[in-house]
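Before the break, one more example. Copy the sequence into your notebook; we will annotate it together after we see the structure.
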Amino acid sequence: MRRPTVLAAAALTAVALLSACGSSDGDTATPAASSATGPSGEITVFAAASLTGSFTELGKKFEAAHPGTKVNFSFGPSSGLSTQITSGAPADVFASASVKNMDTVVAAKAAGTPTTFAKNVMEIAVPPANPANITALADLAKPKVKVALCAAEVPCGVGARTVFSNAKLTVTPVTEEVDVKATLTKVQLGEVDAGIVYVTDVLAAGDKIKGIQIPADVNAATSYPISTLTASKNADLAKAYVDYVLSAEGAQALTDAGFEKP
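Here is what the structure looks like once it is written out:
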C-alpha cells in the first residue's frame, strides 16, 4: 500500500520543480521585456510650414531614438491645418505657428492642453542680387516695388500686416501666397522684389536669399504651441514626440534653426 503514496509524492515533487523552472525562465524575463518596450507604430504630425526644416530633422532623430516608429508630417498654413483637424482629418499632433489657430482646435475639443515651444519674428527677404535695391522696410511701400505676402489669414500674413501697421506703412502686395514657403519661393524665383517671411526661412534658404532685418520696435513675433490631438490612434507615440520637441535636444535644434525661446 505504500507504493502509490511514494509515486504521488514523486509526482508532486516533479510538478513543483517544473513550476519553479517556469517561474525562473518566464516570470523574470517578461517584466524585463515589458519595461524595455517603448512606443511603436506611426503618427501623423500637422505642423506649420515654417517648421518644415526643423521638424523634418527632429523627426529623423526621434525615429533613430525610438526604433520601430515612423513620424509622418503634413506641413502647411496653420489656419488651414486647424480647419482640417476640426473637420475630422486624421492626425496625432498639431504644431501651430499661431496661438489663435491652436485655440480653435482646443475649443473644438480636438486637442489637449498646448505648450508653447518656440517664437519667431519677421524679416524681409530679397533675391541675392537685390535688383530693386531694397535696404529698409519703407522701400516696400514704393509704387514700383513688387512685394509678396502670405494671405491675411495665415500667421505669416498676420505678422507682415502687423509690421506695416506698426511702421505706419501702406504696402500693396502683388501676390498673396498660401503659406510662408510659397511666399519665399516667389522671392527665390525673382518673381517679386521682396517678401515678408520669418527669420528662420531666410536662414534656411542660405545664399538663395538675402535677408534684411526689420527694426525691433516695429517688428512682429508669433508663438508656436504644440499639443497631442484627442482623436489620435497612437496617443503614447504622439505624447512621446511632443515630449521630444519640448526636450533640451528639441529646443537646441529649434535654436539652431533660428527660432527664439518662448
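The chain has two domains: 39-119+223-256, 120-221. The domain at 120-221 is CATH 3.40.190.10 (D-Maltodextrin-Binding Protein; domain 2). Try to locate both features in your own notes.
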